[in-house]
Amino acid sequence: MKMNQLLEAFWYILPAYFANSSPVVLGGGTPIDFGKKWRDGRRILGDGKTWRGFFGGLIVGTIIGIVQYFLLPEYYGSLGIAIELAFLLSLGTLVGDLIGSFIKRRLNMPRGYPAVGLDQWGFLIAALCFAYPVKTIPTGEVLFLLVITPLIHWGANIFAYKMGWKKVPW
Length: 170
Prior knowledge:
0% strand; transmembrane helix; lipid metabolism; lipid biosynthesis
């Protein structure tokens, strides 16, 4: 795979990465599950998934796509496509993260507990699925993202921990 293909894959997924990480900084407030419990007696999602974080991530990811358009308009073709793609990547990311939290609660994993694979690939796979109708990337680039995303996720978590935005470095 050529370097420009790797950069294109990274460029494509950038709104999703920002959408996934921004709730750490922008979150707080009312939990998405409103404190309700599932039929197993455990919280549906937990306090870590809030409306402010969800919509903050959606907005940040979409803004990243708009900025990308103005930096490299030929990649998208139109501002409308850039907004639509960034929005869907961001929405997919956040929905994927919510699904991951739901699964973790069912497995009785506490908030913030690392779930290797689920934490790194769940949001990525959901983002790619949501964005599929608008713009896809070649299989090789998807595979590259599957390899690089856990490393980026790990690095971002350590950075957020050192900045005091997260209580744990994972």
